[in-house]
Amino acid sequence: MDAETNATKNPVNPMSALSRLKTLLAGLILAFVFALLGGASGCGMAIPFSAENKLGPATIDGTDEVRSDGGNLGTIYPVTMIVQGGQAGAFGITGWNFDGTNGGVNALNDFPFPGAPIPIGNLTTDRQTPFEFSYTYPPNNYQLGEAHLIIDTQRDNSDTEAIFVDGVFSGRPPSVNGSSTRVSDAVYILGLAAADPTKNTYYIDWSLAHYKQGQKNTFDLNLVDLLNKTAKTPVDVLNDGYLPVVTGDDSPVFQAPQGQAPLLVLKGYTISKTPLTCSASSIFTFQNVYLHNDGNSTGNPAFTGTQVAPFTSWAGGPVANQSIEIYYDAQLPRVDTANITVATATIAMNMKRSATGFAAMVVSGVGVDEAGFDRSQGSAAVESWSDANTQARFAAFLAGLPADGAAHAVTLDLKTILGASVIRGLMAQGKLNIAFTGSLVAVQSAETTANRALSHPVSGPELSMTGTYFTDICAVPDDPTSPLQDGAPQPAGLGDHDSPVVSSIQATEITSSTAVIQWLSDEGSSSQVAYGVGDPTTLTANDTTMTTFHRVTLTGLQPYKYYYYQVRSADSNGNLTISGAKLFRTLR
């Protein structure tokens, strides 16, 4: 939902008017001081996480607490590192060897696959593409939040793709080099064997469920998911500053149009009492063709009539007062949404339009209708309706779709109808929900997505997204005394009756079902969070470890809901601080 729409829908902010004024004045003073120091506008500032500076709606009341005594505990800043990968040595990875004898299955072959290594940009199938990342991992004052591997690849219609990431070999390879000493964790399923809960097929399953085959796509792979089923964590494989990767079988890695190599994106946090030194990254590209999923990702249909899947609508014919519900797991790059340029956002499909009724659609809560449509048919999931200009653009789309009940190939241009800024806001919600109703009576899909298995084909509707992005790269301050070093704080004195002072309270890494709450305290204290959809009445387990940097993960959250939360910290004498209520919203 775009910012203008969101302003009319947010619940009342619990922050007082006086607190708002104090925070605003403090922010203006900080911005002025930062400008005098020569910093870029907004770069490295202690800006709160929000829909404008983090992917997806995050804290609505994200402002820091201000100490009444003027002390400065520092601020938790988000920092991003983008590392471009490349190929080195004779076979793409420094120090690795390939022996092609015995079909590449040989003890002298370091590679996980038997097929010969190929350079980035080579489209040969039944091969493997090796590359590596070399970088300096921050030695202190750094907390890793998320790590993502970004590659452009085009997989075929087979079911045998796999990936090697720093010893972890996962996926569904057609064959392997079992003699490779580089594989420390073999968590793949060989060939088309039955599913095994101890194995990791994230790489192949993600591509099958989300991306069109035979199409160049920008894969955004979460390192946590690639390491699943092993004891390794992202920090384990990243903190040495070196990450070798090999994609196999029919997953060649492309050079992007601008010479962009594979990317390793590290999103983390640092603590500083002064603004960070930052600079803009290079401009990167993304391009994807997504497969649809049947239904609505939040379980809240957009219209009050009967909900049907595309296959049902096409095969069974129109049903009175029906709506067709689909959604896409389409993800924008994890950067400030203002730094994303959406070049195209279109849905290609076959559609039937009847001569009766008025057409309408809802895109992630934004209703777009034809003049004359009865908006009372919209459910509570419709958060806003289109204006006259949007209606005119929707009418132009309908003009190209004859109301004759016959099948017609159409391209729905979401960017043209809604505008790029609205599209960015909707995409930042994590999933893109689309619903059609009225005279739009059928959308083609060869099979229901519920029946999709392995490479079972699904035809239309297909969402195409292309664009560019960049981010601010901020230096991590060298601070061996940082609270992020996990040094044990001194216990409180026996006569201490003062509660801890908490600051830099943030809701981060928000998904449809999880969120991370983090904050600072001026003395060693415990960590606990109260949260809830209406009131913050649910308590996390109380972590009694005395620390000044606090990080608590909330799980089991509901998609696309507002959550209030409060942080709770008590020192070793039992002096307890409970913060004021703050608010964030989960993704779709």
Explain what this protein looks like in three dimensions.
It is a single chain. With 588 residues, the protein is mainly beta. The chain has 3 domains: 184 residues, Sandwich (Immunoglobulin-like); 176 residues, no CATH class; 182 residues, no CATH class. Helix content is 13%, strand content 33%. The protein contains 9 helices and 30 strands. Strands 12, 13, 14, 16, 17, 18 and 20 form a 7-stranded mixed β-sheet that branches. Strands 24, 25, 26, 27, 28, 29 and 30 form a 7-stranded antiparallel β-sheet that branches. It has a 5-stranded mixed β-sheet with strand order 2-8-4-5-6. Strand 25 and strand 26 form a beta hairpin. The termini are close together. The N terminus is likely disordered.
Q: What are the defining features of this structure?
A:
single chain; about 600 residues; mainly beta; Immunoglobulin-like; 3 domains; seven-stranded mixed β-sheet; seven-stranded antiparallel β-sheet; 30 strands; disordered N terminus
